[in-house]
Amino acid sequence: MTPLPGSSEFVFWEQSSPMNLENYTLILPSISVGNVGQLAVDLLLNNLNVKKAAYIHHPSIIPMVGVDPFKSECSELTTSCQLYVCKENKIAIIQHRAPLITAKIPSYITFLTSFIKDQKVKRTILLASSFSEFFTIDDLNGVPIHYLTATCDAGTVDAFKAFGWKKFALPSNVVSSEFSAIPGGGIAKHLLENCEKEAIPLVALILICSEGNNYPEAFRTIECLNKWLLLKEDMAADKWQTPISWKLPYGSAAPKTLY
């Protein structure tokens, strides 16, 4: 596999030529509180008919290699950042499995926005989370998820309001200059700003939560995403099967295939 010059020089395609992602929806996680976005992407990859399309090797991403998180006794290796494609839903999905190097995040944002533009992606959806400690119960009561948008049409925002979703904003008693505009939200703020500047349609879905066992928050994120995109007919949380890798974090032995 060889990379292409330009924005795709860090994208190594499984096939000899890159896939055409024009008019696709790109979904990716922000590495944020409780890894909610990454867990939600795991659910997508484990339940949709996806194929591995490429891996992304950018200097901002800490190198990592591991076993396949979705198939037991599989000899295929998994890397820090991979791109998957679901042709039937016209969805491309990026999964991050390692942190970003803080000092190199701006260059990753530049790469990502260039890749989206070069591929002529229809819209991008960022799955993120933010610290609950800044909010009261009243702030969160009855709100399934929060959102922020860049260069999005009014119809999208109207749909979110109809769902009961709320535009993300820190409470008035929290001075945003003392904290991040999206505390614990990873690249969400910077990507929103860059997409607005580059006129790239982006929706950030932000779940308010705390660190811990965040599997329930991942399910809630996916339920909200599915309510909007209708990826699966049955939207009940128990219809989304968890990947085998979710059995490993809490005291389980490492899989033998790792060695």
TrEMBL record:
Gene3D superfamilies, alphabetized: PAC-like subunit
Purpose of the protein: Chaperone protein which promotes assembly of the 20S proteasome as part of a heterodimer with PSMG1.
GO biological process, one term: proteasome assembly
One term under GO cellular component: proteasome complex
Protein name (database record): Proteasome assembly chaperone 2
Gene (UniProt): psmg2
Coiled coil location: none
UniProt cross-references to Pfam families, sorted A to Z: PAC2 (PF09754)
